[in-house]
Give the backbone structure.
Amino acid sequence: MTTQSLSYYIWPGQVHFGFGAVELVGREAKALAAGHVFVIADPGVVAAGLTEPVTASLKAAGLGYDLYDRVVPNPDTESVDAAVIAFKESKADCVVAIGGGSGLDTAKGVRLAAGGGGKIAEYALMLGKKTRPPGRQMVPMIAVPTTAGTGAEVTPWAVITELSRKLKMGVGGAFLVPTIAVIDPELMLTLPPFLTAATGMDALTHCIEAYVSTNDNPALDPMILHGIELIGRSLRVAVAQKKNREARREMALAAMIGGIGISSKWLGACHSLAHQLSSFADVQHGVANAIMLPHQMAYSMVGALERYARVGEALGAPAAGSVRQRAERAVEAVRELNVDVGLPTRLRDVGVTEEMIKGMAYNAYKIDLNWWTNPRTVSEAVMEQLYREAF
Ligand SMILES: NC(=O)c1ccc[n+]([C@@H]2O[C@H](COP(=O)([O-])OP(=O)(O)OC[C@H]3O[C@@H](n4cnc5c(N)ncnc54)[C@H](O)[C@@H]3O)[C@@H](O)[C@H]2O)c1
Ligand SMILES: [Fe+2]
């Protein structure tokens, strides 16, 4: 047997999905033998009233909790280390995270560094560097997403920024998949149109990068294509009608599918490019992907024409013509979707300057690992070229 014939799958933990699921948080925490719960959220999520159903459910189950609301967007090592200290002081034995990827990733960081000791930076998965092993005893985690984007509720990693080197680094592994995901689209009805669009394009990027990835996980392919189809028909509606329950439900499902997809199939060059936009210029993660995705797809297409052709069709493009024409329609469909949901399409419009490009290209190629499974090989020069095209 050659290693090429081996597939490796990371499946999510338990998942509750659907309207009203949030009411189960208390019961599930209790089933995990929680005595005292550390609830993690960001200030925006607290202000939107989204922690209330969670804390109400904990109270109903007779559980005490502390609410930690100092999560920052694109969480950095300092903010995670601070949350670890607060977690230890609370003496909690279970983490419940509610929010977008930033809140969920902060909670994963807390779980990891509180369980294994040391600072979160010591767990960074970087090229050739030894990382601190996870602790034997990590507290259980319940993840409650409020954006339909990152899929962090089912993925094995957290993405944490190291400020000194302007790097977004991954921490984690199969052991860090949240113990339970509680996905309730009701909590997404408050998400404003811009963030709905941005986080939805993150989910689409996950599905597309996973679908064309060089990792071979055939059991996931039909599900990932379905995720792309869901986004193709529901993202515009969720942006246009904030309270449309069916569109929100389909987007929540697509985000979960994207998370399951990337857990095994990983990502591609689009995320390597996007991460630098956030660490250099504070661009929202989904916006960063939305801008780079059509450029990365047009470049990568020749490495997986048939797969890109099927992506186009899942997004509603006609199936006629040569495989190359069908694949090109996938790129066009993504460009159109970006415009329809009102997202910026050029780097110069989101605070990126031309002077940043060389440094970002270096980091995207030399340090960020995500391009490893891109269907077409990249180089530092290619990264620079793709940034210049998007500029
Ligand atoms: N762990 C993973 O597998 C994974 C995958 C992709 C991305 N990420 C990371 O996730 C982070 C981005 O997460 P995100 O895009 O979900 O954004 P986010 O968590 O940063 O949230 C963005 C904003 O939306 C607000 N918000 C969230 N839900 C809301 C709701 N329902 N109503 C009103 N406001 C709401 C928040 O308060 C915040 O201000 C990045 O750091 C990215 O690198 C992680
Ligand atoms: Fe992402």
About this structure: The radius of gyration is 20 Å. Residues 3-188 form a domain with the Rossmann fold fold (CATH 3.40.50.1970). The beta strands are 14-17, 36-40, 64-68, 94-99, 141-145, 157-162, 167-172, 180-183.
